[in-house]
Amino acid sequence: MNETLGMTGAAAALGIGMLVGLERERHKGEGASRAFAGLRTFAITALLGYVAMQVGGGLLLGIVAICLALLITVAYWRSLSDDPGVTSEVALLAVLILGALCGTAPELAIAIGVVIAGLLTYRQKLHYFANSQLTEAEMRDGLVLLVVALVVLPLAPDRFIGPYGAINLRTICTLTVMLMAVGALGHIAVRNLGTHYGYAVSAIASGFASSTVTIASMGHLVTKEPQNIKVLAAAAILSNLATVVQVGLILAAVDTALLRHMWAPLLGGFAATALYGVCLMFPRPDARANQPIKVGGAFNLKLALVVTLTLTGITLLSSVMLNLFGEVGVMLTATFTGFADAHASTASIAALAESGQLPLEAIAGPALIAVSSNSVSKCVVAWVSGGRRFAAYVIPGQAGLTLAMWAGVWLQ
């Protein structure tokens, strides 16, 4: 026996079996055409997997799995119809394995069991989505995103290379995946909520990953949906709400005392951004602006690569400047690093203050310089990705955000 039989693992196995079994029982049917497995069969199978693993280890579990597979095969052929399915059969084998997993990792087994039950419950909606709602372009983009995120990204080396050690392949891949995910998130939100609200909701959510990337995505959509330019510009501006919140979270994570010197700039920037974004969104310029999109892919891979390489170039330039001029001050560093990422600059400034190298009351200047330079970078990205008209809406919002935060310093 590998270990003493425990009630926790057994209870987890029983819970998994009953959860999946309840779902199967509801769709089991009645009479001669009913399916072979229901609530009791799934519950017993899960417990059998747990006990087999505890008593005989992997060998006994393998024997039990083979016997169960034979029984399933017999039941399958006895109920063979014009359109046979193997969902219940596969689910039964999965429950056996999950029951065995409850002995070593019950939390993981329970999570997988809940996912399986969800997939079984919403099978009709999933079938409808796959056959009627999902387009060929969306399917292609989804596969590309999964390949890059699950295959390419884990294989990318996480170390700095190149001149001045400024290039990190893992970072480049992460930014690419981030931009594709932002586009996919926006695509899903727009299909469900319509363009008027969907773009704004997705922009705020994806802004926590990268507000600059979100603005680039919104700008790219302007070329395809020029009638929604104000809505897209509003979404781009509202993505800055995530930037402001993240700056506050970073400061609080390093030392809550830092927030005492930044609360007014953060509140001012949040209020100015929200007000300008809402003014752009309302009133609706066109009733057609809330119509869901009908065609097109989930994201633009070419745009993702262009933006990623641009941000990488900015980071390389920052490293070159720092190596050429040395320790000329936190201000210069914040200015250049802020072009690429305000969050990284804020984190480094907060770390300096926490270590005592920078007075707490002196963090506002460098932090706002980083935010300001990042706003300039976002304006450039808006112009390049969405054109002059899109930038004409975005630039005042970025300027308002920056001025409001600086005003907060003087008022605090």
Any overview of this molecule?
With 412 residues, the protein is mostly helical. It has 16 helices and two strands. Helix 1 packs antiparallel against helix 3, helix 1 packs parallel to helix 4 and helix 8 runs parallel beside helix 11. The longest helix has 48 residues. It is elongated, with a radius of gyration of 27 Å. About 3% of the residues have low confidence.
Give a quick summary of the entry:
With 412 residues, the chain is mainly alpha-helical. Helix content is 76%, strand content 1%.
DSSP summary, beta strand count: 2
Question: What is the approximate shape?
Answer: elongated
Question: Which regions contain 5 or more consecutive residues with pLDDT less than 50?
Answer: 285-295
Structural class: mainly alpha
Tally the helices: what do you get? 16
Mean pLDDT: 76
- What sequence of helices (H) and strands (E) makes up the elements? HHHHHHEEHHHHHHHHHH
Rounded Rg: 27 Å
Strand arrangement within the widest β-sheet reads 1-2
- Biggest beta sheet summary: 2 strands, antiparallel
β-sheet strand percentage = under 5%
Q: Give the number of domains.
A: 2
Estimate percent helicity.
over 70%
Q: How far apart lie the N and C ends?
A: 67 Å
Topology of helices and strands:
Layout: H1 7-26, H2 39-78, H3 87-101, H4 106-121, H5 123-133, H6 136-155, E1 160-161, E2 167-168, H7 169-193, H8 195-207, H9 211-222, H10 229-238, H11 240-254, H12 263-281, H13 301-325, H14 330-340, H15 342-354, H16 364-411
